[in-house]
Backbone:
C-alpha cells in the first residue's frame, strides 16, 4: 500500500500546470454558480408588489394620519388595509363611518372625486406622508413641464368644458364584462393593478420620463384577475409595446415638447414605439367596435373605435395632393403610420373635451373646449378650435389650403368648399374639423364618404 | 408513582362522579398493567370486571385522558405547613406563599411562569409547560409572556401580548379588548382564567378548578367542559400536541379547529354567553378569540361571509384558487408562520395545508399569549425591511410579494 501511495505522489512534468487549470476551472464553475444563485435570488425576492409604486420600500405608500402608527415601513399593507379596523385599539383616521370593503381605510369607490385612491393621490391633505404629486401624460411623456396639473384627483375633477374619464361609466362598463370585476370594484382598477402598478417615471412622480426611469403603470382590464400573479402589468414585456402592435407598419413617436431631436415618451431618440406601452391594444379592450359605452358626460353613447380600419390606426391613409403633415411625420410614410391613443389623449382628464392633451407633438397650446369645435381656433378663426389639435400634425389647414374633398363638395377657386361646408349661416364660413373627422366616421353630412374619415 | 387517585364512590347516579370513576379506572388499569399488578384493581370498592373495563377503555379511547398521575401533595398541601415551614412555593414575583385556594402549592404563574431558561419546568416532578421563560431555543405554541416584560426578546412592550394582570405589568395603551362590546365588563384586567381570562370555566365563580384532574389530552372533539377542551379553552376543539410544541415539525404540532363561516351575532348573545360560562358556540379557536374580540370575528362586522370583507376574515376557507392555491409554495407545506385551522379535528397533525378546505384563523397571524412582535404577530410586521414585514402575509397572499 505504501508503495502504491508513494507512487501516486510522484510528480510528473506539467502536473502543476494541469492542477492549476483544474483549480481555475473549478473556481470558474463555482463562481458562476454563485453568481447565478445570487442573481436569481434577487429576482425572486423582489416580487410584483415589492416592485410596484405602492410596495416600494423607498417611495411606496406610507400613510400619515392621526392615530396611525408612524413606524410602519413604507409599502406595508397596513397603510391601505386595516386588518381589523383597529390599530392599537382604535380606528385611525380617516374614520369613514364604518369599516370599508377589502379592509381599506376608506371607501373603495364613492364617486368621481371620492374614493380610496384620492385620499393619497391629491396634493391637498393627502394621507401620503409628504404629500403626493402626479403629473399629466403631457408632462411626463410630452415633457411639457409647464402643465400645472399635479395630482390625480385634480385630473378626475375636471368639469365641462374640461373633461375626465368618467369613473361611474367605467364602473358600469367593467362590471358588465366578464372580467372578474364586481360592483364592489374600484373603477381605477380597470386600468391599474394597485399591487403591481409602477410609477412612470419610477419614483419621480414630479418629473418627466427618462429612459433610465421607466415604469409600467397599467394592466389590461380584459385580463383582470384577483390573482396578482395572473394580472400582470401591460407594456413591460415583449409583445406589449406599440412597436409590437404596429407590426410591419410604423409607429412614429411625437416630439417631446419644444424639441425636434427627442421623442415621447421618455425624451430619448427612440422613435419606433419600442419604449411605449401598446396603448392601442390596451384602450381597445373597452373602446372597440363591439362595446357600447354610454357616456354620462356626453349624454350619449361613445363613438365606436375600429383602430384596425381607422386612418390614424392600421387603416390605410392616402397621400393626396392637398395633404401634408408635420415632422417628425413624413408624407412618404403616409399609409404606414399607426398612432397610439396617448398621442392625443390624456388618460385621466384634461382641460379639453375628450381629455385631449394640452400638448401634442411637442407643441402647445391645444385648447379644444367644445365637441363641435365652434370656438375660435388659431389666428382667431371661427369654428376652428380643433385645429389646435389637428394642426399639431396636419398642415395646410388654413383658410385657403384647399382640402381634397369628394366630388359633391367641389373646391372653389380659393380653396374653400361649397355652401354645404361654408354656408356662413352662423356668420362663420368655416366648418369644424370635427364635423367630419371623428372616431370611426366614414360619412360627411350624412353622405357616405367611401373611406374612413379619421 | 404510588400516589394514584383512588376514588371511593359507594353509589352514585351523578354522571360526573361516574365519569371521574371511569377515568380513575382507566388510569389505574394503565398504571397497573405497566407494573403487572392487577391486584390493585381489588382496591376499588366497586368491583368491575376486566372485560367491562376493557370495553370502557375502547369506548373512551378517542380522547386519551392525561389525568393527574402524581401524588396529591405534588399540587396540594393540606395546611401549608410541613415541619414548621410553608409548603406553598410555586409563586410568581411578589405573590405570597400564603395558603392558596384549593389547597394548591402554587399559583397559575407560580407553576407555569417560572422564568427559567426552559420551555418546560419541573413542578414537584411534573413537567410543566411554561408561558414565561427565557429559553432561547423557542417558545411553546401559545407564545411567551416574557416578551411583554422584556425578559426575552427585543424589549418590553405592552403591544407584544395579552397583558395578564397577574404579571403585574399595566396595560398602557388599551382600555378594553379591541372589538369587544361596550361596556365590555373586562377592561384591561384580563387574567389567566375565569370570567376575565381565557382558560377554564369563564364565569365569575369559575376558573381552572378541576380541569387538571380530569384533563383530556390529544384529540378533543367534545369540548363541552373545560377539561375536555383544547388547552382548557372551554368550548374549543382541537388536537393537542403532547409537548405543547416544545419540539415541532410539520408532522408534530397542534391542530386547531375552524369553521367555514364565522359566527353571526345578529343580537344573539348566546353565541358567546352560555349559562355555563363564556364560550364560542362554534367551538373554533377563532370563535374563542371572538368572545372578547367580537367585532373582529362575527359576520355582522367583517362584511359578511364572503369577499369583500371589511375586516380580515377568520373561520373562512382559504380559497383554493388564485394566489391562495400557492399557499407556502410548492406542495402547500404546513407553515408555522401562517397556520391554518381544520374543519375536522384530525387524528394526527397534518404536514400539508389544503387551500379550498382549510381555514384562516386568528392564530394564522397572531400568537395567543405573546410574541416578540407588535400586536402579537407571528412575524415582525413592523420590520423596517418591507419584504420581512410582509413575509407572513405572503404565505397566503402569494401574489403580493
Residues:
Amino acid at each position: 500500500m505504501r508503495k502504491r501511495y508513494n507512487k501516486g505522489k510522484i510528480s510528473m512534468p506539467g502536473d502543476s500546470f494541469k492542477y492549476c487549470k483544474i483549480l481555475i476551472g473549478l473556481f470558474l464553475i463555482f463562481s458562476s454558480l454563485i453568481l447565478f444563485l445570487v442573481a436569481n435570488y434577487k429576482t425572486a425576492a423582489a416580487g410584483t408588489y415589492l416592485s410596484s409604486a405602492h410596495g416600494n420600500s423607498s417611495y411606496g405608500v406610507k400613510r400619515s394620519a392621526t392615530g396611525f402608527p408612524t413606524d410602519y415601513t413604507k409599502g406595508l399593507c397596513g397603510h391601505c388595509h386595516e386588518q381589523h379596523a383597529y390599530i392599537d385599539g382604535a380606528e385611525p383616521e380617516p374614520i369613514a363611518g364604518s369599516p370599508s370593503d377589502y379592509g381599506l381605510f376608506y371607501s373603495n369607490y364613492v364617486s368621481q372625486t371620492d374614493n380610496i385612491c384620492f385620499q393619497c393621490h391629491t396634493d391637498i391633505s393627502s394621507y401620503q406622508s409628504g404629500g403626493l404629486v402626479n403629473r399629466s401624460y403631457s408632462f411626463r411623456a410630452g415633457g411639457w413641464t409647464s402643465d400645472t396639473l399635479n395630482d390625480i384627483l385634480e385630473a378626475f375633477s375636471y368639469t365641462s368644458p374640461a373633461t375626465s374619464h368618467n369613473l361611474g361609466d367605467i364602473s358600469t362598463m367593467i362590471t358588465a364584462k366578464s372580467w372578474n370585476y364586481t360592483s364592489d370594484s374600484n373603477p381605477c382598477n380597470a386600468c391599474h393593478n394597485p399591487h403591481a402598478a409602477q410609477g412612470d417615471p419610477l419614483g419621480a412622480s414630479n418629473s418627466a420620463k427618462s429612459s433610465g426611469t421607466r415604469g409600467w403603470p397599467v394592466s389590461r382590464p380584459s385580463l383582470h384577475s384577483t390573482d396578482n400573479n395572473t394580472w400582470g402589468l401591460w407594456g413591460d414585456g415583449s409583445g406589449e409595446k406599440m412597436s409590437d402592435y404596429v407590426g410591419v407598419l410604423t409607429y412614429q413617436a411625437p416630439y417631446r415638447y419644444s424639441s425636434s431631436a427627442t421623442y415621447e415618451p421618455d425624451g430619448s431618440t427612440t422613435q419606433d414605439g419600442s419604449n411605449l406601452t401598446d396603448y392601442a391594444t390596451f384602450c381597445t379592450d373597452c373602446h372597440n367596435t363591439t362595446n357600447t359605452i354610454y357616456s354620462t358626460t356626453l349624454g350619449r353613447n361613445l363613438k365606436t373605435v375600429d383602430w384596425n380600419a381607422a386612418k390614424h390606426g392600421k387603416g390605410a391613409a392616402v397621400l393626396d395632393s392637398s395633404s401634408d403633415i408635420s415632422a417628425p411625420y413624413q408624407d412618404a410614410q403616409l399609409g404606414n403610420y399607426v398612432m397610439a391613443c396617448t398621442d392625443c389623449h390624456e388618460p385621466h382628464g384634461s382641460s379639453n373635451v375628450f381629455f385631449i392633451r394640452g400638448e401634442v407633438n411637442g407643441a402647445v397650446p391645444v385648447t379644444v373646449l367644445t365637441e363641435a369645435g365652434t370656438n375660435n381656433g388659431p389666428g382667431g378663426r371661427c369654428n376652428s378650435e380643433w385645429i389646435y389639435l389637428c394642426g399639431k400634425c396636419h398642415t395646410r389647414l388654413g383658410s385657403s389650403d384647399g382640402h381634397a374633398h369628394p366630388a359633391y363638395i367641389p373646391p372653389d377657386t380659393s380653396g374653400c368648399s361649397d355652401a354645404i361646408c361654408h354656408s356662413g349661416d352662423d356668420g362663420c364660413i368655416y366648418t369644424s374639423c370635427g364635423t367630419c373627422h371623428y372616431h370611426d366616421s366614414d360619412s360627411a353630412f350624412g353622405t357616405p364618404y367611401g373611406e374612413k374619415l379619421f | 408513582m404510588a400516589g394514584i387517585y383512588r376514588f371511593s364512590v359507594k353509589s352514585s347516579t351523578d354522571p360526573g362522579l361516574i365519569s371521574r370513576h371511569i377515568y380513575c379506572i382507566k388510569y389505574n388499569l394503565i398504571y397497573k398493567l405497566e407494573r403487572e399488578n392487577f391486584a390493585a384493581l381489588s382496591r376499588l370498592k366497586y368491583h368491575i370486571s376486566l372485560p367491562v373495563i376493557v370495553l370502557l377503555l375502547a369506548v373512551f379511547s378517542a380522547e386519551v385522558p392525561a389525568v393527574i398521575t402524581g401524588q396529591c401533595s405534588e399540587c396540594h398541601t393540606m395546611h401549608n405547613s410541613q415541619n414548621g415551614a410553608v409548603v406553598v412555593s410555586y409563586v410568581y414575583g411578589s405573590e405570597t406563599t400564603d395558603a392558596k385556594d384549593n389547597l394548591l402549592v402554587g399559583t397559575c404563574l407560580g407553576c407555569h411562569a417560572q422564568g427559567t431558561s426552559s420551555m418546560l419546568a419541573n413542578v414537584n416532578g411534573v413537567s410543566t409547560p411554561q408561558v414565561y421563560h427565557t429559553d432561547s431555543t423557542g417558545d411553546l405554541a401559545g407564545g411567551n409572556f416574557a416578551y411583554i416584560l422584556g425578559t426575552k426578546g427585543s424589549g418590553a412592550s405592552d403591544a407584544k401580548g395579552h397583558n395578564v394582570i397577574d404579571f403585574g405589568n399595566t396595560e398602557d395603551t388599551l382600555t378594553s379588548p379591541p372589538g369587544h362590546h361596550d361596556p365590555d365588563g373586562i377592561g384591561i384586567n384580563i387574567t389567566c382564567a375565569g370570567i376575565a381570562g381565557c382558560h377554564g370555566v369563564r364565569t365569575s365563580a369559575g376558573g381552572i378548578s378541576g380541569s387538571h384532574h380530569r384533563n383530556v389530552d390529544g384529540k378533543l372533539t367534545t369540548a363541552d367542559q373545560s377539561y375536555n377542551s383544547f388547552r382548557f379553552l372551554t368550548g374549543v376543539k382541537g388536537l393537542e400536541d403532547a409537548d405543547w410544541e416544545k419540539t415541532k415539525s410539520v408532522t408534530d404540532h397542534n391542530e386547531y379547529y375552524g369553521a367555514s363561516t364565522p359566527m353571526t351575532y345578529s343580537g344573539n348573545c348566546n353565541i358567546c354567553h352560555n349559562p355555563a360560562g363564556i364560550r364560542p358556540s362554534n367551538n373554533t379557536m377563532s370563535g374563542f378569540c371572538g368572545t372578547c374580540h367580537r367585532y373582529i370575528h362575527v359576520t355582522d362586522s367583517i362584511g359578511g361571509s364572503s369577499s369583500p370583507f371589511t375586516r380580515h376574515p377568520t373561520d373562512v376557507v382559504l380559497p383554493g384558487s388564485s394566489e391562495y392555491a400557492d399557499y407556502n409554495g410548492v406542495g402547500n407545506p404546513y407553515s408555522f408562520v401562517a397556520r391554518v385551522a381544520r374543519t375536522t379535528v384530525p387524528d394526527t397533525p397534518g404536514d400539508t395545508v389544503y387551500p379550498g378546505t382549510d381555514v384562516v384563523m386568528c392564530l394564522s397571524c397572531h400568537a395567543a399569549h405573546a410574541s416578540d412582535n407588535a400586536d402579537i404577530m407571528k412575524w415582525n410586521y413592523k420590520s423596517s425591511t418591507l419584504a420581512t414585514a410582509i413575509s407572513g402575509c405572503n404565505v397566503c397572499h402569494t401574489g403580493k410579494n
